[in-house]
Amino acid sequence: MKNICGEPVRLGVVIGTHGLQGDLKVRGLSPDFPLVLEVAQILVRRPGVADLSLPVRRAAWHKGNVLLRLAGVDHIDAAEALVGGEILAVRSDLPEPAEGTWYWFQLEGLTAFDRQLGELGTLDDVFSTAAHDIYVVHGPYGEVMIPAVPQFVVEVDEVQGRVLFDLPEGLVAEADDL
């Protein structure tokens, strides 16, 4: 489902506590997870309970997760009550991405088009390689893996829900090749 402007962006989940002073151990749930280090305020969402909006006091990497200290969560007992909660950020609180780049929440679910082939399908996943990210599109050409490099990405239009690529010949297996 496409993220609507203003809708909180899901970043991670509280998987445990760390220490006695209320630090939360947070595991990432999306490629946008590092944004948890850049926001001043987060939301903690738990089933059946109103979202908590809390200022971030400290956030730091720790063994592949993030240790998060939130205002008002200053003891292990308070932190334990948040275990299992999702960590979200309000979209308007996020820094603007660098020119020509996008956050995953902006791209997920967009319809992918190529200038020559037309509709490729839906942008469903992204993964990182040593060189660059790879967008994974599923549609009429099967699974298409597109290097997320500026020379291939022509336009991202969140309002229209589409991303336009200019892919080199041979990157997409056409019907004759399937």
Molecular structure report:
With 178 residues, the protein is mostly beta strands. The protein has 2 domains: 9-93, RimM (Elongation Factor Tu (Ef-tu), domain 3, Beta Barrel); 104-177, SH3 type barrels, CATH 2.30.30. The chain has helices at residues 76-80, 104-107, and strands at 9-18, 23-28, 41-46, 49-62, 65-70, 86-89, 111-114, 118-128, 133-139, 142-147, 153-157, 162-165. A hairpin with a 4-residue loop joins strand 8 and strand 9 (133-139). The relative contact order is 0.17. Residues 1-5 have low confidence and may be disordered.
Short description:
The chain has 178 residues and is mainly beta. It has 2 domains: 85 residues, RimM (Elongation Factor Tu (Ef-tu), domain 3, Beta Barrel), CATH 2.40.30.60; 74 residues, SH3 type barrels. The chain is built from 2 helices and 12 strands.
N-to-C SSE string, H for helix and E for strand:
EEEEEHEHEEEEEE
Return the CATH architecture of the largest domain: Beta Barrel
Separation, N- and C-terminal Cα atoms: 29 Å
Measured by DSSP, the beta-strand proportion falls in over 45%
Kindly report the average pLDDT value: 90
| Cα radius of gyration in angstroms | 19 Å
Give me the number of helical elements. Answer: 2
